[in-house]
Amino acid sequence: xxxxxxxxxxxxxxxxxxxxxxxxxxxxxxxxxxxxxxxxxxxxxxxxxxxxxxxxxxxxxxxxxxxxxxxxxxxxxxxxxxxxxxxxxxxxxxxxxxxxxxxxxxxxxxxxxxxxxxxxxxxxxxxxxxxxxxxxxxxxxxxxxxxxxxxxxxxxxxxxxxxxxxxxxxxxxxxxxxxxxxxxxxxxxxxxxxxxxxxxxxxxxxxxxxxxxxxxxxxxxxxxxxxxxxxxxxxxxxxxxxxxxxxxxxxxxxxxxxxxxxxxxxxxxxxxxxxxxxxxxxxxxxxxxxxxxxxxxxxxxxxxxxxxxxxxxxxxxxxxxxxxxxxxxxxxxxxxxxxxxxxxxxxxxxxxxxxxxxxxxxxxxxxxxxxxxxxxxxxxxxxxxxxxx
Length: 389
Fold this sequence. Notes:
InterPro entries: TAT_signal (IPR006311). The chain contains 16 helices and 14 strands. The chain has 389 residues and is an alpha/beta fold.
C-alpha cells in the first residue's frame, strides 16, 4: 500500500479549500439568483469521504447520465456544474469545499450558500443559534473510529478502560472539536464507564484529557507528533495513521457503549428555509441526485473509494479501509432518528445548547429541526422509476 506524507496529504486536500477561499474573496461566489436562464444552487460540503455521494456524482456525470438521466455536467471541474434532470438543465450548481462542519454552518449563517452537507450535530447547533435552516436528509452514517498510538499496549475498548483507570496521569485523546459527532459519542461512552474527562490542560486529576486539534485533518499530526495517546474522528484520517504504521484501530464509534450508536447519524444535508420556500423543486431534485449518489456509493464501495482517493488526494488503500466503516443513505430510519435524539440529549447535558434547542424534548425535534418532505418526494420519484428500492 502506497504511503503518503502528511505534508503531501494536506497540501493536496487543502488546495480545494484554499482555492475556494481565494475565489470567494475575488467574487467567485455566485449570487442566489442565476447568471443565466436557470437558478443556482450554492452547495457547500466538507473535503471528506463522508460526502462521497456528492463527490461520486460530480466525478461520474457520464455514469449518472447513462443510468439515471439525472446528473452533474462539469463547467469547471470541482467548482461549477449544471444539474440536468430528465434531459433538461435544471440548475447551475456551485460546489464550495470546506474543511469542517462549522465552516459550512458559518456560510449558511452568512447567507452565502443555499444547501450544504455538514455534521448532524453542527446543524443542530445552527438551529439552536437561531439560523433559519432545516435538516432535509441524512447522507451518511457511522464512519468515526477510535485509534491509539501503536506504542500503547491497548487492543480493545475494555483494555483501554482498564489502562486509563490504572494510569497515574490523564490519557490524552486528540479530538476534531468538542461539539463534533465523534466527541459527543466518545464523551457519552466515557460517562457510561464512569471515566472523567476535561479539555483543561492543567487538570491532572481527570482520567481523559481531550486535545482539541481543531479539525479532523489535524488528527494525523496528533499521533505522528505524539501530541496525543489516541485519536477519535471521521474517516479517512484515522485510516491514514493506520496506513502510516503509527496508529492502531481500537473501535468503530458506532459500537461504543452503551449500545445506542449503531448506524448513528453523522453527516446530513441541510437547506436554508428561505431557499426551501423559494425553490422547493430544486431541493427535491438535488436530493434525487444525492439519493442516487448514496445508492451508488453503498453498492460500489470500490468506485466510491477511487473517486474519493482522486478527489481528496488520498491513497486508494486508505480509502478502501475507510469505506469499510462508512454507510451511505438518505433514509431517516428509526436508528438514525434515535441517534439524533441521543445527540440532542448529550449536547444538552454538555451545556452546548443555550438558544432555540435549550431544554428541547425529543418529540419537539421534528418541528424545530427536520423537513423531510423533499427527501420523501425524491425517494418516491426514484422508486417510481425503479432507480432505488
